[in-house]
Amino acid sequence: MAIASNEFWIVFGVLLALVAFLYSSVGHGGASGYLALMAICSFPISVMKPSALLLNLFVSGISFFFYYKKDFFNFRLFYPFAVTSVPAAFIGGMIPLENKLYKILLGIVLILAALRLFGFINTHEKQNSKINVAFAMAIGLGIGLLSGMLGIGGGVLLSPILLFLGWATLKETAAISSLFIFVNSIAGLSGFFIGKDTFPIQSFYFVPIAVFGGILGAYYGSGYFSNKTLKYVLATVIVLASVKLLF
């Protein structure tokens, strides 16, 4: 990656912390936001995927800790998704996608993420219904494979499904998604390490910034925090990134 100016890295760091803050507040690791930011900044794909997974690992872990402390985690709702998503994410992490295909798939996922942030995908709580374990395992398998391939944790896909089917409340969804992202990120990174000889060292430089934003976001999000304006701004950034990737 080409050396950029100090001003560029300052702005990038601030935006990275903001993405981590916002995503962790709703129980997510922030991969779609990190990937959108890196796509706009023209980071090479070889850096984007492992960096997003690494940051996801830290931020989702922090988010889960705060939501778990508030007693929002429901293991019964979590395990059917995780039991199939983890091995699938590991396999997906080993699959090297051709640049054009990677950009197309990522662009589509980013559009879905933006639609959710804009509120076009229903995320309102419904009356709780009993989880269908076999269906949940199938969902976990598909999300896990895609997560490993693209370098996302899958929370942006799992959360609306949980809420749409009425399987979890908003807070339960945040807790389940954060751990789901955490285990998928571990699996995806493991697969990446096996499939690649090197890991971009610059990815580790982003960790302290994301952790700072993640701690603040998870602290406020697990309580009563809500900020629609920030969500709309982030959604706009993600749309711009998806356009850049697709066109």
From TrEMBL:
Top-level lineage group: Bacteria
Pfam families named in the record: TauE
Subcellular localization: Cell membrane; Membrane
Record keyword Disulfide bond present: no
Signal peptide interval: none
Spans through the membrane: 51-68, 77-95, 101-121, 133-162, 174-195, 204-223
Keywords annotated in UniProt: Cell membrane, Membrane, Transmembrane, Transmembrane helix
Protein name: Probable membrane transporter protein
Species of origin: Flavobacterium myungsuense
